[in-house]
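Technical note accompanying the year-one report. For the benefit of new consortium partners, we illustrate the data format agreed upon in the data management plan: each record pairs a sequence with a structure-token string. No post-processing was applied to the example shown here.
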Amino acid sequence: MNDPTEIDYLRHVGGIVRSVTGKSDFGKRLAEDLIRRVERCQVYVVSFSQTFNNLSQWRAYAPGPTGVALEFDPSHFGATPVLPTTYERRRRASDDSFAERIRAIEREAVLDARAISRQAFIDEVTHDAVLLKPPEYADERESRAFKFSEEPDGFYAGRYGMTPYVRLILPRESLTRVFLNPAADRRSAALGTSLFLKHYGYPNQEAFVFSSEVRN
């Protein structure tokens, strides 16, 4: 998770925890656990768009004739839900609502119950952070799936340096179509991609270059 909006949201809630609980051990641990979700990369996100013909996304993520967009059917994702992003600046819950929840958790007398409520609160806040984006990005029509994990499966060299990742294993039938970059040669690119798909066990997936439907 590396979107500034997500990180700022978790830090904001961490600040509310500190203001409500003062210097208590409970408040300190809760705030640290929220920030740890960011600093130790414990949340892994995969992003999808509900549209394939947004030109600004082609320019940003797949410049040049070699880029592709993969279309998936999320009904084949099993236990991995794909949820729509909310485009707004306001918090899903008010600061007063957060403060009330935090006080209620701190008052719980049974330690096991407090631990369960505390973890549920952290997961809920992280869930909101992952699905919240500024309204100026609404044209992306983004949906996301995410996973909590203590350890990554590996690393790759991304735009932010060495980036940890976890694998999302999807069945072959979840891939439905491959859209080729509008700058690609229509005939040769589609033919080559179709042969590639069939060779690697995807005989029923379509591959084509589009041009007339691209939106700015």
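Partners are asked to follow this layout when depositing records. The helical segments are 4-21, 25-39, 55-61, 95-107, 111-130, 186-199.
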